[in-house]
Amino acid sequence: MMTQAIETIDIPGIKEVSDLGTGEDFEAAVIVFNCDCHTYQQVISLFCQIIPGMTPPHAFELAWQIDHRGSAIVFQGDIKSAETIGKKLAEGGLRVEVRY
Fold first, then answer.
1. Residue 83: its H or E element
2. Fewer CB atoms < 10 Å away: N or C end of the chain?
3. Higher pLDDT residue, 70 or 7?
4. What is the pLDDT of residues 58-94, one digit of tens each?
5. Residue 13, C-beta contacts closer than 8 angstroms, at least 6 positions apart
6. CATH classification of 28-99 is 3.30.750.24, yes or no?
7. Helix/strand/coil (H, E, C) string of 19-81?
8. Using one digit for the tens of pLDDT, what is the confidence trace for 12-62?
9. How far apart are CA 17 and CA 19, in angstroms?
10. Rounded to two decimals, what is the model's pTM?
11. Under DSSP, is residue 95 helix (H, G, I), strand (E, B) or coil?
């Protein structure tokens, strides 16, 4: 029986990543709460103007969720972007919270 030597190779650029198990890979979330002072079209328009990558169909889904469930997370990302988006949505008259 022949024995073969096992060669170990060090692969550069690989690094171990720890996960705390939260499943969240973002720093902050922007939550919009229901109010009876805006139409769907107003909310959809604000979302599409302010939230990067927002599409009218997705904005409608979020507006429906806010109307029927009371709130929705409309953005998740870095703190600076979340604060900017939250501020602009609030300036548009929406009830907004940025959670860290």
1. helix 79-91
2. N
3. 70
4. 999 999 999 999 999 999 999 999 999 999 999 999 9
5. none
6. no
7. CCCCCCCCCEEEEEECCCCCCHHHHHHHHHHHCCCCCHHHHHHHHHHHHHHCEEEEEEECHHH
8. 554 444 334 345 678 999 999 999 899 999 999 999 999 999 999 999 999
9. 7
10. 0.75
11. strand
Q: Which residues contact 100 (CB under 8 A, 6 or more apart)?
A: 27, 28, 79
Main-chain dihedrals φ then ψ at residue 60, nearest 5 degrees? -65, -45
Tokens 């690989």 appear where?
14
- pLDDT at residue 22, rounded to an integer: 43
Here the tokens at position 4 are 């073969």
Domain spans, the chain: 28-99
Q: What is the spatial distance between Cα 7 and Cα 29, in angstroms, rounded to a whole number? A: 47
Q: Which residues pair with 94 in a beta bridge?
A: none
| pLDDT confidence of residue 51 | 98
